[in-house]
Amino acid sequence: MPTSDERLAGQIATAVSRLRGLDLTKPPGISKAISWAFALSVFGAQELSPEVADQTLSTVLKYPEDEDTVRQAGR
Fold it and tell me: What is the pLDDT of residues 53-69, one digit of tens each?
């Protein structure tokens, strides 16, 4: 059974992959995914829930317009 850290890492990888599939000005790269994982660990997140993702989206996306695009897409 995967640990919560492994599960969260998988959720982050899946989310970043989905974000890369959107028409963003600057899709997130590996360094942004790592920054996101660090931010989530600071918040003590055990999983990437929609609420946590929304609160930390600016960690993984560089431009506010990209955040708007993601929120409109409901991801």
Answer: 999 999 999 999 999 99
Which residue ranges make up each domain of the chain?
A: 4-73
The pTM of the full predicted model, rounded to 2 decimals, is 0.87
State the virtual CA torsion across 51, 35, 28, 67 in degrees, nearest 10: 40
φ, ψ (nearest 5 deg) of residue 36 = -65, -45
Sign of CA dihedral 52, 56, 60, 61: positive
d(CA 32, CA 62): 9
Measured distance CA(75)–CA(58) in Å, rounded: 14
